[in-house]
Amino acid sequence: MKEKLLEIKDERLSFFTPAGEVKALNGVSFSMEEGEVLGIVGESGSGKSVTAYSIMGLTAFPGRLIGGTIRFNGHQVDQMKEKDFRKMRGNEVSIIFQDPMTSLNPVYTVGNQIEEVLKLHTDQTKAERRARAKELLELVGINEPEKRLKQYPHELSGGMRQRVMIAIALAYEPKLLIADEPTTALDVTIQAQILELMQELRKKLGMSIIMITHDLGVVASMCEKIAVMYAGNIVEYGTTDEIFYQPGHEYTKGLIKSIPQLGAEKVERLVPIEGQPVDLMNPPKGCPFAPRCDRCMKICLSEKPPETVLSDTHYAHCWLRQKEEYEKGAADGE
Amino acid sequence: MAKYIVKRVAMGILSIFIVATLTFFLMNLVPGGPFVAEKSISAEAQAALAAKYGLDKPLFQRYLTYMGDFVRGDMGVSLRQRGRTVSDIIFSKFPVSARLAGIAVVISLLLGIPLGCLSAYNRGKFWDSAIIVFATCGIAIPSFISSVLLLYLLGSKLNLLPTVGLNTLASYIMPVTALAIYPTAYITRLMRSSLLDVMGQDYIRTAKAKGLSNFKMIFKHALRNAILPVVTYVGPMLAGLMTGSFVVEKIFTIPGLGREFVSSIVNRDYTMVMGTTIILATLIITANVIVDILYKVIDPRINLK
Fold this sequence. Notes:
The structure holds two protein chains of two kinds.
Chain A: E1 6-17, E2 20-32, E3 37-41, H1 48-55, E4 63-72, E5 75-76, H2 82-88, E6 93-96, H3 100-103, H4 110-121, H5 126-139, H6 145-149, H7 158-170, E7 176-180, H8 188-205, E8 208-213, H9 216-222, E9 225-230, E10 233-239, H10 240-245, H11 250-257, H12 298-302, E11 307-311, E12 314-317, H13 319-333
Parallel strand pairs in A: 3-8, 3-9, 6-7, 7-8
Antiparallel strand pairs in A: 1-2, 1-4, 4-5, 9-10, 10-12, 11-12
Helix pairs in contact in A: 4-5, 5-7, 7-8
Chain B: H1 2-29, H2 43-52, H3 59-71, H4 86-121, H5 126-140, H6 143-157, H7 173-199, H8 202-209, H9 214-226, H10 228-242, H11 246-251, H12 257-266, H13 270-298
Helix pairs in contact in B: 1-13, 4-5, 4-7, 4-10, 5-7, 6-7, 7-9, 7-10, 8-9, 10-13, 12-13
């Protein structure tokens, strides 16, 4: 079997704050093939960014990996030191952040910031780097690249800055591109342009992408697989069709119900998910979603739901599915 | 840029004019006069002296005369240091103070910036605490205490350094140290807090995600953004130090401008008060213009208008 590009098993990560241990990830497992596009969705604080950041060792102090294994592109990431991460960042895996307005250093030119990555990971001469930087700007669809290279970030619009961020991330043709809510800070028309660009680049360069977002529309259009996260757990994982058409977890169902429907017959109110997100300092003993779940059962409060396999590519952690599978099994057995 | 500088210079000249005017009238509002304290001279002699220096004329007329002379480059003669012109005194003493101040500022920058960086980088660890303790002491201890301590320890007890004047290179050590302690401590703290602020910015995370080393991250990406508050502080501080420190010059017996500053006020040496005040104002205004231009050089977002 071909080795997976990324394989995370039972990852546990906590932030050790003065107020106590915040359990940000509580046993996250998933894997990715080369060239795959995975969407991680979930609300704020569900651990989507932390999961992705931990692949490149960017989890900020006082966050610490306390268990599990991460294998990426042949590296045993969970054993890696800061020095090893440095060699990997920017060439094997790179990242695009949420806010392009603040993610570029205001005091250096765009060219300088793109060429910096090349300087770090290649032996190219100055002229070669400049040529490559120009090529990259063309690749991400920036006109007059020659002129833009000499400009400062504040002289560019938000959409253009995000394109520059993408150019920086792609400078060394990474195996994996992490996009941390790349369109959240942009207005809608620019959002569509950036997503289109990312799709185009993926076809051209064939890299894998992890798309972190809370916008289900974005994942539907971009991703092949989706991982739904809640309170530091992947509660459901499957292909985009499976997640949207046969959601297996009550939380996923809630998320899909809360999407506004265009062209609905009559005016319908949006259905919000009631309640508050979980306090990660004292995560519940059972299913983390149980306190907010409409169909919560007794067992949901006391025991963690195991993985229920719904298809080869689809699983969910929900007692209801477990029950259904059991009943189905019992019926088949008769 | 050229237009901006011309504009700032014009505004500077106006400011100096206002400072000079205010000083002139305020100074004359204070009771007493340059010759009042000298009990040995008779009332007639005092009146004669006043007439000689034009002090018997109405205030406004004296103001016009002074400003007229000043515009022609004549700051008058000192009323108390007989036979010496104000420009004479300033030009002989200013270089002494300026040299001391220059050395002190260079040292405080060379120490303060790296110490601040070191402290921020080791936030919460031993070196951070050690540097913060040092910096807090440096800010809290006034220069007359540190001067006297230095003088007592290095000069008198250990007999290592000369205690008077500025005749040898070694004699610079103590006064420069006394002058540099406060700015060093202040720059350290400023640098620390500003760098900590910048280290939390998104573009530092970007730099890290590119695979840059910590060294490059701090010295290329963080420092240039974090240095602005230090630049803001150093400009006016340099101007202040260049006009001399009364305390340090008095304790180390240095013939600098700082002593003239205070003694001219005590003696009601009107022309000297005007001269020293105008020098200080000019230096501060010049420093501010230079700081503003440096801003533009450091941060391209700043628009000079």
